[in-house]
Amino acid sequence: MSVQDLPSLHRRYVDLGVEFKAAWTFHQFLQGLHKFFASASIPAYPTDLSEIHQTLKLVSEHLTSNRGEGVTELLDGAAHQLEQTVAILAAADVRVTPPLLRQFFERVKSYDDQILAQMVRFYLGRAVEDGLAGDRLDKVDFLLTKMGEEIDPVTGTTGLRSPTRLRPIFEGFWHAIEGLAAEPAWVEERKLELATFRKELAAAENIEQFTASRLVARYRDAKRLLGRYLFHPEIVLAVVETNLAFKRKIHSEFKAEEGRILKESQRILAAEEAFLGSATGTDLSALRRAYDEVERNQRADNLKLEDLSFLRREIEELRPRLLSADRGTPSPRLDQLDVGPAHELVAPFLSEIVSALEGTDNRASAKEAALSRDLFHLRLEAREVQAFRRLYVVAEGDAELERFILEAAALRQRVVAEASEISGLLDESMVTREAPIFEQARRTTRLAEEYVGRFGELADEAVRKGAFAEAQQLQLLRMRLLRDYAGLWLLAHRPTG
């Protein structure tokens, strides 16, 4: 190997090192996804990155000492391994959706521009081979915008970093793409087109006008047509500036509208009992799904205007029925509740449970609601919260079963209250078991015995249907009632003397 070959070997080593660093960064990113988003369905993958790193270190030592012997073979081996590893990483990247990428960088704050730049270089390498479109375009678009944004420490608004600072980085991306050239006139046309989007965005006075214009869809189409020309330094600066303009518009000027829609949705969902005679469970279910989708996208910084528009349409459709219900009589919920012969025993406790559940956040999980401060004293199970929601939030399931579960929860409250009252009497003075509370307790235990038996029948039926999780929950409720009922029975029936 002659000395004259060393410069070309060194250039090859540098290029391979750049590609390796991008692959290593992307590998670390995938590891981070596994750590922070355990539910992300990204399969495990083999990697030779550590071995490649050792090979590159050995090449560096050879080149530093001006020894070219064996370097070509080492570089060939490292290049082959790296090509295979990058292909594996690219296959894993198929499972990384744009929203997941955004959530990761919104959650992980300890990263710098170099991390973002290496991520872009990884995608850039794939774009050279496979083009830049679909999810890959969306992910690169996000990363470039993240690199270009700067938050004002005083106002908290997001703006574009100094182009002088960004241009060298973007020029590096552009020069990494071989065989592409753009005519200055064409570049100016694209910049003018992007400026037109920004002007149209600024002119939008409300979200209806914004949505009707299909501005977001048209802007996305324009970016897709750019393909790899997105990386041209002048174009990417204009794209990032336009992206940030859209972000500011959605997060500031439309924030009040967004808040109004969510507030109106909450009002409808909180007053769902008024809809029992005027809106179907399907209506409310669609509204709740739209509301939950908007909230999830807000938290993930992935708000879609079409979701917000759909939520508004649901509101507009349901509002007349809400107003009609508001003008009518108060909610007949408890009056309509058919609890059969147990009504006089469970009704007061059932009313307390329903009233408490009405004030809970229906967006929280049933378990979270049961353990919340407002419900904790009622000692409810998640399945009992679920029964309330299935009856009065989104009508679903077997209404008779859900009503029985709520009645049983109320009966358990009565059992505990009467046991406490009898225990207090026995502690304070000698009383005969002919006192009214004992007769009342004996009535309660007879009813509780019927409910325990009914729970057993329902659990057996669930098993026959193959609903084993439901059977387990019903058995848990049965055992809780049985335990409390047994204590009251002993107090009410134990002989005196």
Topology (SSEs and partners):
Blueprint lengths: L5 H31 L12 H16 L6 H23 L4 H10 L5 H18 L3 H15 E3 L6 E3 L2 H13 L8 H20 L3 H6 L2 H12 L6 H21 L1 H16 L10 H19 L5 H23 L5 H4 L6 H16 L7 H5 L11 H11 L6 H30 L7 H29 L3 H26 L4
Helix pairs in contact: 1-2, 1-3, 1-5, 2-3, 5-6, 6-11, 7-11, 8-11, 12-13, 12-14, 13-14, 16-19, 18-19, 19-20, 19-21, 20-21
Structure description:
There is one protein chain. A hairpin with a 6-residue loop joins strand 1 and strand 2. The longest helix has 31 residues, at 6-36. The protein has helices spanning 6-36, 49-64, 71-93, 98-107, 113-130, 134-148, 163-175, 184-203, 207-212, 215-226, 233-253, 255-270, 281-299, 305-327, 333-336, 343-358, 366-370, 382-392, 399-428, 436-464, 468-493; strands at 149-151, 158-160. The chain is 73% helix and 1% strand. Strands 1-2 form a two-stranded antiparallel sheet. By secondary structure, the chain is an all-alpha fold. The protein folds into four domains: 1-96; 108-253, no CATH class; 256-330; 334-493, no CATH class. Helix 1 (6-36) runs antiparallel to helix 2 and helix 2 runs antiparallel to helix 3 (71-93).
In short:
73% of the residues lie in helices and 1% in strands.
What attributes does this structure have?
mainly alpha; 4 domains; about 0% strand; elongated
